[in-house]
Amino acid sequence: MSTLLYITAHPSSPSESYSLTVGEAFISAYQEAHPEDRVVRLDLYKTDIPQIDQDVIESWAKLQSGQSFDELQPNHQKKLEALAHLLDQFCQADKYVFVNPMWNFSHPPVMKAYIDAICMRGKTFQYTEHGPIGLLNNKKAIHIQACGGIYTTGPQQDKEIGSRHLQTVLNFIGVTSFDKILVEGMSYTPHLAEEIKTAAVDQAKEKAKVF
């Protein structure tokens, strides 16, 4: 049995979101094809994701210097516990589905905060004399992203940062099996929006069967 972590970063509902609509289609098809697997849902907009702020950095430094966790301030403990939970949950999963809209060529802020939370030296990557190595091997990910413009081809292609950034980070921590479904062009060609969504849903269903 595998565990799939379904990570969404959209403040709206599936009925109002192209990316979530496609994501739900993927999950439904995945569960039908892999009934023995466990699906864990993680809505980043409903999750406490502490930023890597001064409290966190100072607390990590104190722990490394030998201070006990119980000696930290209660609000600092809470932040570290939340970050540790997110990191453990991510490491324990076998497969990842990331779902988000493109905002300003990249992710919503909660996705970046989550990415920061799961990149931890000694847990998901390690520095060696031969350079950094990822520690999460034999896992796979797929990214579902929706945007109104067209960024996979044409003059705007180099402006797509979100999916490329996510793939770079995941490859860095060892998740080298990376696929994507980019739902795009709905604002550029609004008369084709439903057709674009239907094609993406069909693609998601097919990819879910073999994910």
UniProtKB/TrEMBL annotation:
Quaternary structure and partners: Homodimer.
InterPro entries attached to this UniProt entry: Flavodoxin_fold, Flavoprotein-like_sf, FMN-dep_NADH:Q_OxRdtase_AzoR1, NADH:quinone_OxRdtase_FMN_depd
Enzyme class, first EC level, given as a word: oxidoreductase
General function of this protein: Also exhibits azoreductase activity. Catalyzes the reductive cleavage of the azo bond in aromatic azo compounds to the corresponding amines. Quinone reductase that provides resistance to thiol-specific stress caused by electrophilic quinones.
Details of cofactor binding: Binds 1 FMN per subunit.
Gene3D superfamilies, sorted: 3.40.50.360
Protein name (database record): FMN dependent NADH:quinone oxidoreductase
HAMAP family associated with the record: Azoreductase_type1
Source organism of the structure: Bacillus safensis
EC number, as in UniProt: 1.6.5.-, 1.7.1.17
Family named by the database record: Belongs to the azoreductase type 1 family.
Recorded GO MF terms: electron transfer activity; FMN binding; oxidoreductase activity, acting on NAD(P)H as acceptor; oxidoreductase activity, acting on NAD(P)H, quinone or similar compound as acceptor
